[in-house]
Amino acid sequence: MTTPVLELDSLECGYGQQLIVNALSIHLREGDIGCLLGPSGCGKTTTLRAIAGFEPISGGSILLDGKALSTAQHRVAPEQRQIGMVFQDYALFPHLSVAENVGFGIHTSPDRKRVVDELLSLVKLDKLGRRYPHELSGGQQQRVALARAMAPNPRLLLLDEPFSNLDGELRRRLSAEVRDILKSRGISAMLVTHDQAEAFAVCDQVGVLKDGHLQQWDTPYNLYHEPATPFVASFIGQGYFIRGHMQARDTVATELGVIQGNRAYPMPEGSPVDVLLRPDDLVGDASSALRARVIDRTFQGATILYRLQLSTGTQLEALFPSHADHQPGDEVGLRVAAEHLVLFPAQGSVNLHAQLPLEQVLNANQSA
Predict the structure, then answer these.
(1) Which of 42, 50, 72, 88 would be 38's cystine partner, CB 3.0–4.6 Å?
(2) Per-residue confidence in pLDDT tens, the chain, 368 aa
(3) In this structure, which long-range contacts are made by residues 360-363, counting pairs with CB atoms below 8 Å and at least 24 apart in sequence?
(4) 339 DSSP assignment
(5) CA–CA separation, 80 and 103 (whole Å)
(6) Contacts by 234-237 with C-beta closer than 8 Å and gap 24+?
(7) By the 8 A CB rule, do 84 and 149 touch?
(8) How is domain 238-367 classified at the CATH fold level?
(9) Measured between alpha carbons, how far is 72 from 60 in angstroms, rounded to an integer?
(10) Superfamily of structural domain 6-82+154-225
């Protein structure tokens, strides 16, 4: 088995007596871009700072190419780790030009100018080398920070909320460019963000954190279609839970009808379960006997996201093509087209799950 570039083994770290990250274990493969994703305060930035060497750890270990960088007893200095870092605020030197910023970490290389010129060309700033940071846009400053972090040829690149200061289309475009740059050079990287769209667009593997605990380390596809916990189901994407009962090992009976899953589930026959339905699991079907009333809609260009209510009062969301133009109050036909049916053992009351979206169900369960 190939040694991972980065390995976190039962990592624990915090501040004083407060444990922020608890028993975190992940492996990042050579050339992959990983991500730590989660809400504010979940421990993702603390983990990134521990990998960089800025924070000590109280348990477990951090390994780079199989060699320990941090344990509870020993910590390699940040400058000796062969790790580059792109900070949230870019941290550029205002008194240095763009070219001088990029070359700052190259102290002895005889090819310093060649490396700087090559990186500036790679990040599409080859004509701006003599400018200063204050003369650049936010997106250009981000490119300078990326080039500077890559200049010493690190084994691992860390990016802390790198696009959070950018807006809309620029954020989307630059995140795609950064992925292309890292992939073109085969650079392994770890990104921290709270934005799942950003994580999905850039990263090969994503770890969802909650209160310092890793909920799931997986591909974006699996996180969306095969969430390991109700929290992952809630945090990733949109959706609603509805109540069902196991009719067979791969079949569940719900108010939407009998739905067959894509595997044998561990819950016994007859047991109550919560069924996760994403907006793309429901499709419009004018001939279906299952009817719902439109109570709200969000136009999204190619699609329209409808909030629907069944006769029982259960609310769901569904994505229709935008030419299927329905207004609040209209009745529509539905059918379930869930190829990746996700079930969890039932929690809370039937009415609670019938009425509330995922995040409200989770909050209610935690306070019960």
Answers:
(1) 42
(2) 678 999 999 999 988 888 999 999 999 999 999 999 999 889 999 999 999 999 999 999 999 999 999 999 999 999 999 999 988 888 899 999 999 999 998 877 778 888 899 899 988 898 999 999 999 988 889 889 889 998 888 999 999 988 887 777 778 888 888 899 899 989 999 999 988 988 999 999 999 999 999 999 999 999 998 999 999 998 998 888 999 999 999 999 999 999 998 888 999 999 999 999 999 999 999 999 999 999 999 999 999 999 999 998 999 999 999 998 999 999 999 999 887 789 999 986 543 333 334 444 344 334 33
(3) 361/230, 361/234, 361/241, 361/274, 362/230, 362/231, 362/234
(4) S
(5) 18
(6) 234/358, 234/359, 234/361, 234/362, 235/37, 235/38, 235/39, 235/196, 235/208, 235/210, 236/196, 236/208, 237/196, 237/278
(7) yes
(8) OB fold (Dihydrolipoamide Acetyltransferase, E2P) (2.40.50)
(9) 7
(10) P-loop containing nucleotide triphosphate hydrolases (3.40.50.300)
DSSP string, 235-268: HSS--EEEEEEEEETTEEEETTEEEE-SS--SSP
Contact 37, 207 (CB under 8 A): yes
Taking a C-beta distance cutoff of 8 angstroms, is the pair 25, 15 a contact? no
b/e code 153-180 from CB counts within 10 Å (16+ = b): ebebbbbbbbbeebeeeebeebbebbbe
Q: What is the residue extent of each domain of the chain?
A: 6-82+154-225, 238-367
- Give the whole-angstrom CA distance, residue 19 versus residue 56: 12
Phi, psi (deg, nearest 5) at residue 229: -140, 160
Q: List the 18-28 sheet strands across, edge first.
A: 18-28, 6-15, 59-64, 67-71
Query: Fold match between 6-82+154-225 and 238-367?
Result: no
- Assigned token pair, 38: 């989660």
Q: Which amino acid is at 27?
A: H
Cα–Cα dist 107/116, whole Å: 12
Instruction: Name the nearest CA neighbour of 98 among 79, 81, 80, 119.
Output: 119
Using CA atoms, how far residue 272 sits from 115, 130, 251, 264, in Å, is 62, 66, 12, 15
